[in-house]
Design a protein that fits this description.
about 140 residues, alpha+beta, Aminopeptidase, five-stranded mixed sheet
Amino acid sequence: MRSITTYSNDAHRAEVVRLWEAVFAYKEVHNQAGVSIDRKLAVNDGLFFVALDQDRVVGTVLAGYDGHRGWLYSVAVHPSFARQGIGTDLVRHAERALFDRGCVKINLQIRGGNESVTGFYESLGYVVEPRVSLGKLAPCIIPK
């Protein structure tokens, strides 16, 4: 039986770390699974969700809301469970949580080289917007 639930650090952490390492393979220190999990839990906003098959983590989504816009991050589905509607269910679950908080617009970004997922998001009603995304690492993160 599949379900989506709020992330529990004790029950889900090791499986989420393995999933993200397999799906994202981030090299940047600030994107390491354990670091990202700890930073999200510090916010304590209840917007970190996992998809379970039985008790196994097979997908994730993090959402964020700043009172103006919502964001989706770390949408991941285990490759063995791809194309079974889990990603759609996760995105819809996060959207409901954001809309329930008063969010009127949700954004997400796709990393360069991963443009193949654009069609998935478009099928859920997202559109590519003419924006330039900028970023800046905190000085303590920047390698010397």
